[in-house]
Amino acid sequence: MRHNHGLIFFLALVLLWLSFAAADDEPDEKPWIFTIKHEHRKHKDLPAMHKAFEKVDAKPPYNWVFESGDETFGVYFMTVNCTEKQKTQLEKDYDHLISQAGEYKPYREALYTAFESSDYVIDQNMNQRHERLMMAQEPGEQVPTKYFYHKSQGEGITVYFIDTGINRQHPEFAEADREGRIEVLFADPFPPDPNDPGKLKLDVDSSLRFSHGSSVAGVVIGKITGLAPKAKAVMIAALDRDALSSEPLYLNALLKLHRHIKKNNSDKRVVVNISMNAGYFQEAEDPNALINDIRRGLEDVFDELAKMKNVVIVSASGVSEWSQTDVAWSWPNMRADKRDTAPNLVVVGGVDKEGKGIFQRPKAEYQQVYAPAYAVKIASNIGYQLTTGTSFSSAYAAGVLANYMSKDKQLTAEGAKDLLIKNSYPRFKDSSGEGPNVIWTGNKLKDAGWTYKEMEDAAFCKRDDKDSCKPNSSKSGGKTNSQPNSPLKTSVSSPQRDEDDDDDDDYEDDDDEDDDDEDDGDVNYISTSTVIKEVKYNVYVTVGPNGPSPTNADDEYIDPLADPKDRGSRQVKARAVAIPTQTRIPASPDTGNLAVLKTSTATDQPSPGS
């Protein structure tokens, strides 16, 4: 028996040694990226190279084999998940095609900043907010008391975005999604699985984490926050399955944008909004040859977009201090001063509530305008809030362009771009008589047949026969204001209210029902009284094992868009610490990457009892 025990002990040691040896010999598989030489992007050996990648790729749980390119541009890069030994062999076998090779992981970036918001109450008429009134102010006239707009609201115009995705389930997008006016594409490599039944959930989760794409798109096509809510949106999400981004991923997003325009809108006027630029993680020519290959690819695609007569591009200037005159080292802004290669590009800077420039001083060579960028109202991952940045300035310009073109069916994309620049004028002038040229909606009160006195009285609309819309006598007495009814719906469905009014969003619209009376005729201009009421929201965005998640003070996961009664039903998987982000002020705006969403907790009104 003693010998048996010794034998068992010996065998156990052998097995332990074998397990360690196996661990040492275990393949070190990781994702690699290979850029293709410029002159060989359409080489006949590329299909064979792709097959070789397929052969060595460690498929489970995901397939990393991918090649970024198309018939127009050829192949820019390929990716594969394999050992370093296999990677070296691939380099030898296809040395005549490969420009650079390296591990892909260092190029993937997380694009979020966690934040904590305090309790606050906002009860603000959306169409009386400073950012809208500034854009509606006519040259030489007083600031209107209400925002007003043309009925077309971007209808028939497609606005493209490269950003972090879009939360289709946010009330801002419910109607557009239901009408099929939102399309979401995912960039490669390593995208969400298109056959995954949970794709919609992933789409929503990513937007809740990062919010930036939803916030930017909401400024254009949002039901309440959008300037052009009837436009169509095509969002190319530059996030992979792990919700990380990279410049190669951005290149593929740009390729998909170019391909989509050629296939679906080659004969239609479109707007491209670039609030999330490529190259923000570097400020000069990168010594990394692989990344420079990717940037040359970006240059190729932007060159082709610049040739498209039906396309106008607006790009956020960056969030550098007002003393900064050069736009950030990013695409497409780095060529903003070259009109011959960027004829359809407009760079958009930012101003505060008074029209004072806070981001990016203008430069003579740029086609540059300005738009509100401080404490603007956006749709976010906690419902609605205020934030700051030129991401939203650019989106405002995109919305105004969409409205120009939907209002005037004969206006070309180039004509709309020229009109945007021509219509922009200073709202504030310094001691030298100069000031940033802020965009204008182009709508005049006299065209609508209104006076400033009429605008002060109530929400209203005007028919094309110059008669005012009749009040809807059938309206219930539940609303505090009795106002004329607009036949244009501007509301969103309200979530169920919690009895204690806690952690809930109210969406109210004084003009949210159709007029069934005998009022006939077309409405050309509308001014509404859309009210957003936010009551006692206390949300912590915490960084956990799966990225940031909205939680309450007890670290319980909540869904800000769900029924309030269900918000405490799920828990985050791991304890995490909330990271507060400082409120922005015009005198000292944040600097850094536009791609990183840094959220302001500024509010219009203090918390009750504060």
Automatic annotation (TrEMBL):
Membrane spanning residue stretches: none
Keyword Transmembrane: no
Compositionally biased tracts (Acidic residues): 498-522
Compositionally biased region (Polar residues): 470-495
Keywords for the protein's UniProt record, in alphabetical order: Hydrolase, Protease, Serine protease, Signal
Record domain Peptidase S8/S53: where: 154-429
Catalytic residues in the record: D163 (charge relay system), H212 (charge relay system), S391 (charge relay system)
Tree of life domain: Eukaryota
Annotated region described as Disordered, given as residue ranges: 463-528, 545-571
Signal peptide: 1-23
UniProt keyword Hydrolase, yes or no: yes
Biological process (GO), any one: proteolysis
One function term, GO molecular function aspect: serine-type endopeptidase activity
InterPro entries, alphabetized: Peptidase_S8/S53_dom, Peptidase_S8/S53_dom_sf, Peptidase_S8_Asp-AS, Peptidase_S8_subtilisin-like, Peptidase_S8_subtilisin-rel
Family listed: Belongs to the peptidase S8 family.
Protein name, entry field: Basic amino-acid permease
